[in-house]
Amino acid sequence: MSDFTSGFWPVFITVIALGGILFCVIMLLIASRIKVVTSGVDNTSDHVWDGDLREMNNPLPRWWVGMFILTVIFALFYLAAYPGLGSFAGKLGWTATKQYEQEVAAANKALEPMYAKFAVMKTEDLAKNPEARAIGERIFMNNCAQCHGSDAKGSRGFPNLTDKDWLHGGSPAKIEETITGGRIGMMPPMAAAVGTPEDVKNVANYVLSLSGSIYDSGRAGLGKEKFAACAACHGPEGKGNTDIGSANLTDNIWLHGAGEAAIIKRINEGKVNQMPAWKDKFTPAQIHVLAAYVWGFSNNK
Amino acid sequence: MKKAPSNTKAEVTIPLNEVVISLYESEDKIYPRSVSGFFTQWRWVMIWLTQLFFYGVPWLEWGHRQALLFDLEAKRFYIFKLVLYPQDLIYLTAILIISALSLFLFTAIAGRLWCGYACPQTVYTEIFLWIEKKIEGDRAARMKLDAAGMSSKKLSRKAAKHFVWIAFALWTGFTFVGYFTPIRELAHAVVNVSLGPWETFWVCFYGFATYGNAGFMREQVCKYMCPYARFQSAMFDDDTLIVTYDEARGEPRGGRSRKAEVNTKALGSCIDCSLCVQVCPTGIDIRDGLQYECIGCGACADVCDTVMDKMGYERGLVKYSTQNALTNNWSHQQMFKRILRPRVLIYSAVLLLLITGLLASLWFRTPFRVDIMRDNAVMGRLSDDGMLENVYRMQIMNGTEETQHYRINVTGLKGLEIDAKDTKETQGDKNKVISKESESAENAKQANENDHTFMVKPTESRWVIVALKVPDGAAESGSHKIQFVIEAIESKETVTEKSVFLVPR
């Protein structure tokens, strides 16, 4: 009833529902004995329309009256038990939400033994278990594929889960942690720390050189010195650090775009990237299964 | 259309009086007399045919499963070779339309054929009446038994009747449920008293419905509940076959000695024996004309024919005829000619068209289905090898009962390559441990990789992830129409699905 802001409507509904039942009972009683004018000869009521259309008395079978009475009794019991009379909640206290929650709880309980079995299995084994993989695939397709792609290879801004490159670490425990709590990848704008736009361009070329991409060797040499500003996070060798989620710059994997222009843009603007936390949606056992499925992308060969 | 008060009602002449009446009436029980004859024989033929079908078909096997099974839980309908899925609901629509049109057609030609000969309500009533007759005797004996006080004989007869009725009804309920759950398992469960709560409920529910409807409700269902009885008038016309009483020939009716010649006493052929009323399962007097209660069973025609034979009169005082034939004194030939009127021909043509269409569409139905969705999250992306990539989710549904392999091909864009691997290791049994066998399966799978072939288990569907690639710069930016061509290797059928390939700017 919370949809109705006016107190009038609950009353209106109650009156309509009970009034309808009362009306049926009264009609049943009135019709059981009724005075009519009848010719008494051929069962007609002596009402004539259109000159020759006559009304007959075709009585209703008594058992049908019985059914009407049963319906009335059922309706009263129903309205007492379930919420049907305005704001009256019903003696059984039934609500759609409660029923939904009960069904979810029942389903979870039915799945409990299976998840309990999975929970004690090691990720490495779970990733090979067809049953667990089927569950993991379904969870992944419904919740993860929207960002990481159906084939888990991601796209710009959304990490590829099938390679060996992990921003926050690719161990089973780390993957579970990532799914459970989500991650925020944060690189501050570094242009000021690096220096002039020329310096930024030089650093970008140095970064390119780390991964063996095409780069300007002169600029790269100049940029090496300025890379010190980046080394705080990315390490002196630019190998990144999974503890703080800083990217490895020495592989040729670029989450936010490859090439000089993209790197300059990152240095100038920084980037905040977020993966949501899933702990409220899934149980730890489910996350365990999902993590194993994800871990399997890069480790199941 | 209510009959005029019959002789059973007291005919008190109250000239236009105000009286108190009840609009409710307790029904008089009808004791239909058993009858034999041409139409009755046909009725029994139909009862045997429909019931042999009903009780027999669920026991038929097809391969390793029940031949006819509507598995609601798994959402699969098995009809002999055919397996239908929720997506095939259109066929149900077609069958319903065909059923409705058949009803129109048969009703236009011969009135209530369905009611009299095939409707479960009449069929089961007939079976229950037969049981009743075997145990309690025919009409007169039953009336006497009901009127008599309680005695051990009455008690034993009634108990025996209800026992047989209930047993038969429960068997009917059991068979009915057997169309929705495998009947052999169901029989096992019944024998071992391990029937599930829902199955028990439905067996009892349909058993009770059969017992109540065929044992007690009988003609009340036709008279008060059945909508078909009520819209008959819209389907009848003057050329529709109906059970009729030849009033011109029969009236004035009256009793006479068997030897009396017709017309000697200025009487019609009707000897007023009231047998036609006694045999009527809905308790009407056909001599009052066509009434909506008449289910067109022809019992009155049969019994009247035997009376006419006994009297030495010509048969057919009560007969199947049409309004036009009766008023115009048509011969049989003229009557049957009129049956082929435009209405009937149009119904037949449309019906034939629909049936042909349904059969053709079932015949050409591909036993697998493909759904393709382009991954909207990924759009176009550059892959590691510098190719431009689009990702697709493809659902392949195997409608056959054998494991199938599907090969995927793509056309529509130059240089299009498929990158799809059968990543699912669930190729064997669900819980198969990785063993030598699966390793060799792995090898076979790898060999298949260039083939882009996917295995789908019988009557199952699975998601397959397909990436399509073109060399970067090979296509203009924008959306390109492409076609997936999926070929079922075993059944050699092909399905083509449209999709698009996006090349970002």
From TrEMBL, chain A:
Positions of heme c 1 binding: 144, 147-148, 275
Cytochrome c domain segment(s): 131-211, 218-298
Cofactor: heme c
MF-aspect GO terms: electron transfer activity; heme binding; iron ion binding; oxidoreductase activity
Cofactor note: Binds 2 heme C groups per subunit.
Entry superkingdom: Bacteria
Residues bound to heme c 2: 187, 230, 233-234
GO BP, sorted A to Z: oxidative phosphorylation; proton transmembrane transport
Transmembrane segments: 6-30, 63-82
Record keywords, A-Z: Cell inner membrane, Cell membrane, Electron transport, Heme, Hydrogen ion transport, Ion transport, Iron, Membrane, Metal-binding, Oxidoreductase, Repeat, Respiratory chain, Transmembrane, Transmembrane helix, Transport
Any single Pfam family the record assigns to this protein: FixP_N
Gene3D superfamilies hit by this protein: 6.10.280.130, Cytochrome c-like domain
A GO-annotated cellular component: plasma membrane
Chief location bin: membrane
InterPro entries on file: CcoP_N, CcoP_N_sf, Cyt_c-like_dom, Cyt_c-like_dom_sf, Cyt_C_IC, Cyt_c_oxidase_cbb3_su3, Cytochrome_c_Oxidase_Subunit
Involved pathway(s): Energy metabolism; oxidative phosphorylation
Assembly information from the UniProt record: Component of the cbb3-type cytochrome c oxidase.
Family: Belongs to the CcoP / FixP family.
UniProt function note: C-type cytochrome. Part of the cbb3-type cytochrome c oxidase complex.
Protein name: Cbb3-type cytochrome c oxidase subunit
Native species: Methylotenera versatilis (strain 301)
Lineage, broadest ranks: Bacteria, Pseudomonadati, Pseudomonadota, Betaproteobacteria, Nitrosomonadales
From TrEMBL, chain B:
Gene3D superfamilies tied to this protein: Alpha-helical ferredoxin, Immunoglobulins
Keywords: 4Fe-4S, Electron transport, Iron, Iron-sulfur, Membrane, Metal-binding, Transmembrane, Transmembrane helix, Transport
GO molecular function, one term: metal ion binding
Superkingdom of origin organism: Bacteria
Region (Disordered): 427-452
Pfam families linked to this entry: Fer4_18, Fer4_5, FixG_C
TM segment ranges: 42-60, 89-110, 163-180, 200-217, 344-364
Compositional bias ranges of the Basic and acidic residues kind: 427-439
SUPFAM superfamilies on file: 4Fe-4S ferredoxins (SSF54862)
All copies of domain 4Fe-4S ferredoxin-type, residue ranges: 258-289, 293-316
GO cellular component: plasma membrane
Name used for this protein in its record: Cytochrome c oxidase accessory protein CcoG
